[in-house]
Amino acid sequence: MNVETEEDRRGKRRREDQDEPQRHEVLWFTDGNVVLATDKYLFKVFKGILSMLSAVFRDMFELGESSGGESVVQEMYEGVPLVTLVDDQGEDVAHLLRALYDHRYYNCYNDKTPLNVVIALLDLSVKYEFKDLMKDVVKQISRQFPMSLRDMDRIICEEEPLFQRIDQEKAGLLLLQAAYKTGIDALLPILFFFCSNMHVDKIFQTAQSMDLESLRILIKGRDELIFASCKLVSNLPQDLKADIKNSECLKDGLCVNESRYLHLDELNTPYFHYTQGKETVKFYLSFACKNCASSVAKSIEKRRGDIWAKIPSYFGYPGWEEANAKLEELMDS
Ligand SMILES: [Zn+2]
């Protein structure tokens, strides 16, 4: 027979208590006038500040006050209104509220902001229309992902740390997912480009939580970029004579006939930065003098620039200029 002892009951109660959301140790202002409840934490904060910074909270509080208790029953917690944020994680809301209440907590010029904080702030600032905070987060992300081929070559090639040195590829995929979910179109072409420069296994490791449509756009655009890149590489031998033609050859014009590419197949990868002019010439072009090699490198860069200009269209976006204009528009809004 199964008899519940006093000990069992006490254990059960303790477990239930542990599952209950707890008061957040920093974000519990005794003179606050609203309690926000999440799965993990309770926050006692100030309505006025939330209303001033967020259109969604302002409307929510106004609705609560104007209902006059007739149709909407306002839940209360120790004498102040209780608002339950059903779909939000307690940790994420804690990042949001700390960013709002403590200016030292979040600074968009700090490259060491942890990625999970950046993503939580993007997600919740868009959801609740904290416009100034949203602009700061978008500014921070766009600083790390500039829309220029030269900058992106450097960032990807040197594996510059992004957001507290976490795995650069994973950071890109998680940011793409967050920007797609929140509809920040201005960031999408550069994030799609960044995420297409990786092995497909890496994409699918992170893809479990990714929106299916964004995954489709990524894979399709990645294919187009690989085709364009492979075409550039395959055409290098036939372009060589023309690429050398106008250089001041240090071997009295011998390079036109003597120089040749070797092992070009190694450049057929999803990594667009592998095709950089200087590196291609350095590692794959033989028997070319310094001037001819430099002339070839410039020609390759020009062709890479032509591909770069088309990259947004591979993912269904008009172009870099339009993406930049959207970014400026967002910042000025
Ligand atoms: Zn030469």
UniProtKB/TrEMBL annotation:
Lineage: Eukaryota, Fungi, Dikarya, Basidiomycota, Agaricomycotina
Gene3D superfamilies documented for this protein: Potassium Channel Kv1.1, Chain A
BTB domain residues: 32-104
PROSITE patterns the record matches: BTB
Protein name: BTB domain-containing protein
Short name of any one Pfam family annotated for the protein: BTB
InterPro entries named in the record: BTB/POZ_dom, SKP1/BTB/POZ_sf
